[in-house]
Write a structure and sequence with these properties.
Distance between the termini: 99 Å
Helix content: 55-70%
Largest sheet: 3 strands, antiparallel
Structural class: mainly alpha
Oligomer: single chain
Shape: elongated
Length: about 350
């Protein structure tokens, strides 16, 4: 059981890693052709590929293929000795360390919130809320504060804090996968770019002021683990300013991008499901079904002739057996001689 879980975790990370590499290669062209929102939506390919690798496998029979043979070898190695137990212990220790680091970072952010040094940010998974620094009114003008609030409210409307929570959980479980950590970092940047595009799309006249507000904002030293930050060192301002200066794609182009993304989502799920090792079908006894039909006249006459022949041979055999028994000396009657 433990070996099967470890193999499932390995397959899931292989599928997710391949999907992350594909999205990293496509995110810049998607942003340029179809907009920042479509580039951010492309990250849905990663969880779909991971989910496809965990779906029930197809049944197969006959000789094992290369994927199935590799899986069998890995399972045999894990089952030998205590390899599965040792790897489980290593994974558990790593997951606990990752959770402890995240808890420490969350504690730092909570302390900064109490001190008025955190934000602007949108935090909270169940009940999202805005976090603003103590000098928010002095640092920004009225129009700038309106843009910052619009940005954070867009994060809340898009449920970005919950997506970041799911990504953080994935990094805790798969702490050993460097591609996953790289992908989460890139995903959060695309999230900020998509949120910027949403605000600018709603307030197109404020594009210049929005860029100036970003440039005047100092990156926050403490960022939320599960929330969304207005500006941090993890979100390069160059990419955000470059996106604000670019022309927004038309609605038709965004719709085309969404159609292509839907095809990519389905392909990622189906490919990951098809690449997993198939399950072996249990071979049972061969059952032959014979359809019986009532005999016709010819068959009935033939059966009767065969029956008469068999009965005749049986009667003749019985008579010969009885004759041999009667001729046996031990059973002949003894005649008494007359005096």
């Amino acid at each position: 059981m433990t070996a099967d879980l470890l193999l499932a975790l390995a397959r899931c990370n292989l599928a997710a890693g391949a999907a992350i590499l594909a999205v990293l290669a496509l995110r810049a062209p998607l942003r340029r052709w179809f907009g920042a929102g479509r580039a951010y939506a492309a990250w849905l390919i990663v969880p779909l590929a991971a989910a496809g690798s965990l779906m029930p496998a197809e049944l197969a029979s006959g000789a094992a293929g290369p994927i199935e043979a590799s899986n069998d070898h890995a399972q045999a190695w894990l089952s030998a000795g205590d390899h599965a137990g040792a790897l489980t212990l290593v994974w558990l220790c790593g997951a606990l360390v990752a959770i402890a680091v995240a808890a420490w970072r969350h504690g730092r952010f909570c302390a900064a919130v109490r001190a008025g040094r955190a934000g602007p940010a949108a935090v909270g998974v169940i009940q999202p809320r805005l976090v603003m620094p103590a000098d928010f009114a002095q640092r920004f003008s009225d129009d700038e504060r309106r843009l910052v609030r619009a940005h954070e409210l867009a994060h809340i409307e898009r449920l970005d804090a919950r997506y970041n929570t799911a990504a953080a959980l994935a990094t805790w479980v798969c702490w050993f996968n460097p591609l996953l950590h790289l992908g989460v970092r890139a995903m959060r940047l695309d999230q900020e770019l998509a949120c910027d595009a949403t605000v600018v799309g709603r307030l197109p006249a404020a594009r210049r002021l929005y860029a100036e507000t970003l440039l005047r904002t100092h990156p926050a030293a403490v960022t939320p683990v599960l929330g969304c930050q207005w500006s941090s060192r993890a979100h390069p301002l160059e990419a955000r300013i470059r996106m604000l200066a670019a022309r927004m794609p038309s609605q038709a182009r965004r719709d085309l991008g969404l159609a292509l993304l839907a095809a990519a989502w389905a392909s990622a799920f189906g490919t990951a499901w098809a690449m997993q090792p198939p399950a072996r079908a249990i071979e049972g006894p061969t059952v032959i079904l014979v359809e019986l039909a009532p005999p016709d006249e010819t068959d009935a006459a033939l059966d009767a002739a065969v029956y008469r022949e068999v009965e005749g041979n049986h009667s003749a055999s019985t008579a010969r057996s009885a004759s041999r028994v009667a001729d046996t000396p031990a059973e002949r009657p003894v005649l008494a001689k007359a005096p």
